[in-house]
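just leaving the lab so this will be short. what follows is a protein written twice so to speak, once as letters and once as structure tokens for the fold. can you read through it and tell me how you think this chain folds. thanks a lot i owe you, the record is right below.

___
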Amino acid sequence: MKTKNRIIIALLIIGTISFSLVQFVVVPHNIAKEKAYQTAQLDPTTHDLSRILRYSNRYMGNSSNLINLFYNLPLAEYGARFQLFPKTLALEVNYQTDAKSIGEEKVHKALLYNAVTAFSLIKNLEKITYTFGDSSYDVTRANIESVFGKNLPSLLEKDAWKTNVQDKLKNRNFMRNCMEKTVLEKK
């Protein structure tokens, strides 16, 4: 009987230690890791391309696909409403905040990143208008192609995306030139 009791007590101790390790070490580590990943998704230079590839579509008319794409891109945390214009193959994204409150640099990076992403994944999308409470920006496929190349879907490989999109967005001169060439700001 003593041996049986010792085994039960040993198993109880091992179970308690294992439970404590999982609850107080493993779970908090996984939560912190997930939180860091989610934070990285808010920045165009660290956004995970593999997370959005499933939203590739030939037609912009698939509204749920298009909206879900933008809900997984930078600036999604500010909330947006969407309006599709199928006759002109255009999309309007109305953010629920002012661009000034977000910050000019962050807005510009996100607008370019989101435009390159949308035009690379949605084959017939031709124009995006981003509207904030205090400003509005127009971006066309032709303007993005003039900077990033005619074959935007070829950028959708992990290394090509990092080199030709994300790393370029870190360069202030590139950003300034790209904004001048590709984005028409309307106040």
User: Anything to note?
Assistant: The two ends are 84 Å apart (CA to CA). The first strand starts at residue 80 and ends at 85. Residues 84 and 91 are 5 Å apart (CA to CA). The helical segments are 2-40, 63-71, 99-102, 104-121, 141-148, 158-169, 172-182.
